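hey can u check if this looks right to u? its 363 residues, i copy pasted from the old doc so theres a chance i mangled smth
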Amino acid sequence: MQDADALVVGAGPAGLATAISLARRGVETLVIERRVPPLDKACGEGIMPAGVRTLAALGVELSSLRAAPFRGVRFIEGERAFAGRFATGAGLGIRRTVLSNALLEVASKAGVEVRFACALDRWELRAEGVCARTSQGEVSARVLIGADGLASRVRAHAGLAAPSAPRRFGMRRHLRLAPWSEEVEVHWGDAAEAYVTPVAPDEVGVALLGSGDGRRYPDLLARFPALAARLADAEPVSEVRGGGPFWQRARSRVAERVALIGDAAGYTDAVTGEGITLALHSAAALARVIAERRPLAEYETAWRRLSRAHRAMAALLGFGTAHPRLRRAAFRALAAAPLAFEALLRIAADEGVRGLSRTGSRS
């Protein structure tokens, strides 16, 4: 007898959104998580408008959360700046711990069991499904869902990992400071970017992307003198937390009785800001395929469609990080034609919604 119909490894936003969507479709779902709350992760902590709508559809009470809206994205390099506004509502800046607690509450109400301090050791395929050995004993299920992040053990054990050249790392810290903009600011420098996201009425998150680890946060911030000066007197309200390396690849999102979701499914770069939104949309698509007992290959097709704009934007912006002169030329052109940047932003923000509607997926 199986312990659950679906076993989700990882209680991040991707894993919990999948579990909630499955439970609401009548699929008995168990989530295991090696950590204990509060669950945190280095993250830019900005959710695009389509992701905000998906959170609301999942049942997250957005109005009760300690968070802050943002209306668009502003690129800044030296004295040059240009911005684009979203066409379909506001995004949401929210601490990862706050988002995690909100999703755990919804999951509990949906009847999802979450076992904390429960690490996956190994797993094997059997005729009737998957048998997973965990630090709390064996668990059997019809399907195994890897939502275990950048360094996914499920991805590796399923033979789905593809060669990935480690490129960049991210570091994040929160500061007690009222947001000075209704936009997420992306400050560009050579081989590094700084992201400023409002996460509460009196707090911003500052994420730095580049090479190195969390011990170099002050040095990396110093590459952005104007931003560093603005933040100089702000009180840090969290420790520096690092993550990476980015550009983790998967050959496929599916194998026999196994599916990957979120960062485990393959991660390009945080430069796009689409990570959580893509994970939420992918969760709805995966839940539909599993609940309707359709071939997992249909989820692979849906994921590719949902991530198309995300991957294209990552490639474009990744090219910009690697070629500063060409990036500056492109920025000069976009600064002179701000509507062009706004059009690009809207395409990237809305493509996943159109992809989701084509899959017919609903949470």
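The chain has eleven helices and 21 strands.
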